[in-house]
Amino acid sequence: TMPSFVYLIPAMIFFGLGTVPAVFATIIYSMPPCIRLTNVGIRGVPIAMKEAAYSYGSSAWQVLTKVELPQAMPTIMAGINQTTMAAMSMVVISSMIGAKGLGE
After folding, report:
1. Which domain holds residue 46?
2. Is 102 inside any structural domain?
3. Over the Cα atoms of the chain, what is R_g?
4. Among the listed ranges 11-15, 31-35, 50-54, 98-102, which one has the minimum average pLDDT value?
5. What is the pLDDT of residues 39-56, one digit of tens each?
6. pTM
7. Angle, in degrees to the nearest 10, between helices 19-43 and 8-15
């Protein structure tokens, strides 16, 4: 993995010093765990469960909302946890480039 401050360098080049590069770098740094773990959770739903839902006449939207998302929720919540922790660490690091820290 890359150190978190590496994401601040291009953000500072494009946006200068202040809050905007800090928010940009925080979003770029913290979103991949959420996306990755959501993908893992959805792909981890057993095919037999999806086939059973389809065989009872469920639409693709119903299978997603009633079968896949509830089954993937523990993994999705782990992704949200990791995203929150990554965002907090990046906020602390980005306070070094002129953005306000957690206290303000």
Report:
1. 4-92
2. no
3. 19
4. 98-102
5. 999 999 999 999 999 999
6. 0.79
7. 130
